[in-house]
Amino acid sequence: MTRVLHVLDHSLPLHSGYTFRTRAILKAQQAAGIEVRGVTGMRHAAEGPASEDIDGLAFRRTPGAASGPVGLREWREIGALARTVEQIAREWRPDVIHAHSPALCGMAAARAARALDLPLVYEIRAFWEDAAVGNGTSRDGSVKYRLTRELENRAIAASDAVVTICQGLRGDLMTRGVAAEKITVMPNGVDLTLFGAPPPRDEGLARDLDIGEGPVIGFIGSFYDYEGLDDLIDAMPALVRSHPEARLLLVGGGPMEAALKARSEASSAAHAIRFTGRVPHSEVERYYSLCQVMAYPRKRSRLTDLVTPLKPLEAMVQGRIVAASDVGGHRELVTDGLTGVLFPADDPVACAARLAALLDSRAYWDAMRQAGQAHVAAYHDWARNIHRYQDIYQVLVGAAHRGRTRAAA
């Protein structure tokens, strides 16, 4: 039985897209007969013991906190995580080390893999320098941006195989000179065992929110600038003129929350927009139940053109109609007119027109829902896609074994 040690930035019990993808990968690998463990770096912020089991998954934590100026602090983080990875690997003896972005994890895993002569897989979920620009914590071309990109390139060079979540990231890596045969695309996926039948409308919650009878366009997630929620708010006056009962439900929070609320209050469609704030993950399905359409109006940027999000796939599984901007990450997930609809990015007028046309075309909604669910089941089901990891591991473990045999001869 293959043993795989996953090196992670953070994990459960924290809730994020990162931790949910990690959980899905590790649970699917367990179900496929692979032994897995996880180790997190210093940025795992949840309190807890040094070793803990969560949802049947074993995690080890890296203790302490790094200090010092930018660059030195990250170097210390890498060193501490590398020591933890090496310690666990000597105890547990994995066959493969599988590191997940950011590059701090990749570099730490590379140190440990070299010391122990183990094969290394490095998985890139996004380029974190671009994510930092999208989140407003860095600037394109800044020292921090260039440093993060250089660390990423070094982690890639040190790995035996690279995994990305979409074709956009794969194409960018190839422009950097990474060989195509070194890269495997492992699409964002959904653990279908977590989803039952789409929930019925929660009438009590609808009354509490004074949401009316619909139609309801929803967004559930983090309020970052790149998500384009300002464009969605700006689209509402035109949409309400053609569909007076339409409502917009914004569930979540984040850096743009105050600005978005102010924008909504100044809108002529303020009466049609509802903010709920953040809600517990266990309550999310209740809010999905109120929405007929889930909207993802991401702005066009390097981040959104290269990276595929997870939320549209979850919405399809929930039997919701997906309306999304035509950035590259969405075009990999949504076939316009079949599994959802696309509208021009950064254009509230076009967004309103597309949503209005969608609300006028309800006769096609059942077919669109079925097509979306079938698409996820065929291409984004972790139980199916997990076999791509097994293929990578088998090749690397076989090559490592042959190398050791030759060295011992």
TrEMBL record:
Per the UniProt record, which residue ranges are transmembrane?
Answer: none
Instruction: Quote one Gene Ontology molecular function term.
Output: hexosyltransferase activity
InterPro entries (UniProt xref): Glyco_trans_4-like_N, Glycosyltransferase_grp1, PEP-CTERM/XrtA_GlycosylTrfase
Keywords assigned by UniProt, alphabetized: Transferase
SUPFAM superfamilies in alphabetical order = UDP-Glycosyltransferase/glycogen phosphorylase
Entry-linked Gene3D superfamilies: Glycogen Phosphorylase B
The UniProt entry, under Pfam families, shows: Glyco_trans_1_4, Glyco_trans_4_4
Query: Which stretches make up the Glycosyltransferase subfamily 4-like N-terminal domain?
Result: 17-189
- Superkingdom of the source species: Bacteria
Q: What is this protein called?
A: Glycosyltransferase, exosortase A system-associated
The record lists the organism as Croceibacterium salegens
